[in-house]
Here is the input.
Amino acid sequence: MGRGRAPCCAKVGLNRGSWTPQEDMRLIAYIQKHGHANWRALPRQAGLLRCGKSCRLRWINYLRPDLRRGNFTAEEEATVIKLHALLGNKWSKIAACLPGRTDNEIKNVWNTHLKKKASEQKPGVGGSKGEPADGDPDTPVPSLSSASSTCAGGGGGVEELLELPDIDMDADIWSIIDDDVARLQQGDATVPCTTKASPEEEGNEWWLADLEKELGLWGPTEESQPQAGPHDQIGYPGQDMEMVMSSSYPQSRSDHEASNSE
DNA sequence: AATCAAGACAACCGCAATACC
DNA sequence: TGGTATTGCGGTTGTCTTGAT
Here is the structure.
């Protein structure tokens, strides 16, 4: 158990820090088309200068189309507080009970304001680090009495959320990726996401070029993009994609929150 | 108008668990 | 059966935004 941890992010030559719209675009397009059977091989096959771990995190937490963005509703907050009292810092289990919310998001929300709110409501309970207040009579969890099994058990829960919904991507993107895969299969008989990645990395050059040209983001690498920050507005080909991307790149925090408030 | 502090969010790190060979 | 590769999870940190002074 737990042996042979992959070097992953320690690799040199990989991008780190915030994701650019181009990177997001590439990741979304690739996953929508080919899935994510192998996170480790995915970035190479998608032409991303990221480690698989980073790609997975980005997809799970921000790019998944079925994510809910915006402020937590009062009901969601109450659920988080209740579940945290029951489960402690089991963010993934709590997230399994909140469709469209991620463990990272819940964790952030908890650490920023729900912890305070919970401690205000129950001075003796909230705020304890990972200490579930199980058995606390003041913490009834009526519909979640067996949260871990009710919400995530039976093969449901998060797994259902991870199913890829249909997102209308611009056909050009698919053609680019299809073409890419075809070339890969011809070249080294490597099928993306289903086999071990081939060591040939130079094949990404034209892939990157094609996609970036197609997206109007032409540049040899992301480094050549002059600080294409998260707030840059880029024309995304599909409306649904635009929705996904805009949700990932709010123009400002207040705009983001205002646009999602209910 | 400029500066500072606090809050909020996104991303990274490292460990653990599981799957595969 | 043991070792390795990969994925998942939780904690932590870095950066940006906003509000106060």
